[in-house]
Amino acid sequence: MRLRKSVLAGLAVALIIAAYLGFADISLEHDKLVHFFVFFGLTLMFYWLFETSSTRAIRNLTFIICTLAGGIGSEFIQGLLPYRTFDPKDIICNVLGSSLALIFSVIYHKRIVEQRRQQRYEQLRSSIPLDVEDVDFDMDVESGAQSDRSNDLSKFSSREDVTDITLKNIKPEPVDDLSVE
């Protein structure tokens, strides 16, 4: 997992502004909207801070740090300050803003990962000839008998028909008997 330096710089500036707004002795007219948008922005930046294809890991990390620790924990810390008050409605706005940013980010991230996967498979498919006429299917490998599998494979002659390719890792198995009969 690598850090995106430009996002890190933006997140650092946003955290300084958010800390000032959260812990300074000021009152804002639209306090709940500020809570919502601050946590929306912080969560969005934190999610995209890490360059990874694992949506599950970054989703869980973002939820724990931004939504739980930031959104809920910051309100409890504010309740300990003499010039700030604890407000459960602020927690709701924090969690809603953070959760909405997390949902948008996960949906968009999954779309990006899927597009990259499709591009890799398209490169794989374009390097393999799919014309059935080019492939010789005269012998059935298991029985040794001749078979006409070209009729079975004719439905796969166009590239549009072959969209789902699943690659599996298969462990090699040792051969017990190498004698030739």
UniProtKB/TrEMBL annotation:
Keywords: Membrane, Transmembrane, Transmembrane helix
VanZ-like domain boundaries: 31-106
InterPro entries: VanZ-like (IPR006976)
Transmembrane segments: 34-50, 62-83, 89-108
Keyword DNA repair in record: no
PANTHER family, per database record: DOMAIN PROTEIN, PUTATIVE (AFU_ORTHOLOGUE AFUA_3G10980)-RELATED
Identification of the protein by name: Membrane protein
Source organism of the structure: Wickerhamomyces ciferrii (strain ATCC 14091 / BCRC 22168 / CBS 111 / JCM 3599 / NBRC 0793 / NRRL Y-1031 F-60-10) (Yeast)
